[in-house]
## 1
Amino acid sequence: MKGLLFTYLLCYGGSIVSLIRPWYGLLIYVCFAIIRPEAMWPWSLSGGGQFSRIIAIALLIGWGINGFGKWNLGNAKLPTVSLLLFWIWAAISTALSAQNLNVGINFLEAQGKILLPFLVGISLINSEKHVKQLAWVILLSQGYVAYSMNDSYFSGFNPLDSNVGTGSFGGMDNNCVAIAMVTGCGLAFFFGMHQKIWWRKWLAFILAGLMAHTIMFAFSRGGQLALVVTGATSFYLIDKQPKHFAFFLLAVALGLRMAGPEVRERFYTTFADQTERDASAQSRVDMWKNCIDVMVTHPLLGVGPDHWPLIAHLYGWGRGKEAHTMWLQTGAELGVPGLLFLLSFYMSTMWMLYPVARRKIAYANEWDVSVARMMIASFVGFMFSAQFVSLEGLELPYYICLIGAGTLKLLSSKKLAFQNQQLIAQLQNRNQALANANPH
């Protein structure tokens, strides 16, 4: 009943608000994209995505009524253009290379549901408050999914175990859920490190712990390895002070405590040699090689969006088999340019935020530094883990990237203000020097 009231209130009440304040419609849309109300509360809700569709329509109408936002993107221009070019290239690949147009069009529609909200969001972000609100929505939404998963697990039912249940959540299998949790861990950890109010800090840390534990009982080797990589990245990024070391060591200790014998045994098989590697791990390696072969054969346009499953049988796999690698499958389906556009979307954001994370930008404040660190930790974990799973439709990383791109947009304005202040200070110093040299 609570889920029903929550969803209907946000959907229909939020739709009305969105016509006047589209930003709040975007926050609701992001919340629904992560929580997936129909999957979270299936006994109360049905409709196959109608709630997200309703709020999306109201959001776009409100966006148009209010002038389509502001497009002085500054450094956020590169990731925004990269995402747009990725979609355009997918459309070109569909038109010129896809054997099944319906499959390609469905891919474009699914990616359009990510692209449009991103464009709306980057045009509407005009203050630090907006970035913080988006971060809170993503943290609480992903944290609630983790809480729900843990609640089921500690009640005696593992929702991500295909042997006793569906082994999935909202169309995502155990590996996809684990990757989403890895992406959320980096954000949650540095969000907590930034907070000064104790309950906010520990709320973020607790949610990070729930996400990490979800990865454990999902039994995803890619997710477990990516969590280790995220931890190593976080250690590199944190300030080297005793209190920061203490929080990091606490996180490591809890992670080791949550990883039971079965989890550790599953994790160690990742590093087995070829003679000892299980069929699942070896099949991934073989499919990676096949994707590279497709990229070499079709380097420009690929074989068409979502078309690897349609040609997998040509390499000895069953029809409909995913390649279990987002990056190489994207390259096989959209060619080298499509892969580069997608990589540019994430890596350009990380590249421009890195100096901020290392405190090398004079006009960046503490929040900017925290955002840069949470983005880099999240992206490194996601980009590493995406090598093991096909999940270009996972929406969470795109919205976390929106936090980073929004911060880059605001930093461009801060840079201009900082430069103006420096210029004014230089003029004042020059005038003072002239006055001292000519006292009369």
## 2
Amino acid sequence: MLNRRLIRIKAFKVLYSSVCSSSTSLRSIEEELLHACEETRRLYYFMLQLPVALSRLANERIELGLKKFQPTEEEKNPNRKFADNALAAMLRRNDIYMTFCESQGLLWDGEQWMAYVKKLFARLLQEEYFQKYMASPTSSLREDCALFSRIYQQEFEDDEDLEQMLEDASLYWVDDLGYVLNVILRTLSIVKSKEKLDLPPLFMKDDDRDFARELLVHSFAHYNEYLEMVKNNISNWDLDRLVVTDITLIIMGIAEAIRFDSIPVKVTINEYVEVSKFYSTQNSKVFVNGLLDRLI
């Protein structure tokens, strides 16, 4: 699930936080890094619950219509295609997945979350692609996966309500939402072709957990040493004027180049330059690129 760039970002955030708080506990930052990684998996499991929540809501609406004293023809003969969609059924049948979600509180069953699901469902009813799906006479897992892929692609971008709710639920979730949605799209693509749900492991490669830990530990242990290297290689700059995020990224870049000599230097530099674009100042990419290249 977690690729190397996201691992670097999580290690960077933990290291930056420890520098700002003057934390000196190696064990605490290791635990924080693993927790941050686990939160991405929890968000993935949570967002993957949406088909279950939406189909449950659709079933409830159908049952309410059937219980009316004078139901309309549409209510007496409801279109159950979405309510009984195969993707939601597949998720519900996965005992390991559902047990994890239930034990971790990752169901869309709270008042606030259900209010959002109702709002989302009302929005879907107005979408042309959803109406075409409902009008189609066929039903298949492939078709259901295609529908939910469209929903995940189109309905959550720049959704301020969702972002606020996710931030309230976990400080880790908002920054990871875009990444998690892409992982879900890959999952749906696999389900559509294999007709089987395979939940991805936390780390994409077997050695990525060790990479995450060793990158953070080496950066933390040698922070002051590499900080001196930075000081000795900047001219006309007072260290206090440098952005702490830039310094942290440069130190991590040095640490990665020294600790992981199997990773090409150009790859290492490029990765930290890319991270600086999102987590530092407008001019940081030039500064990080130039100083990292010189130091390494």
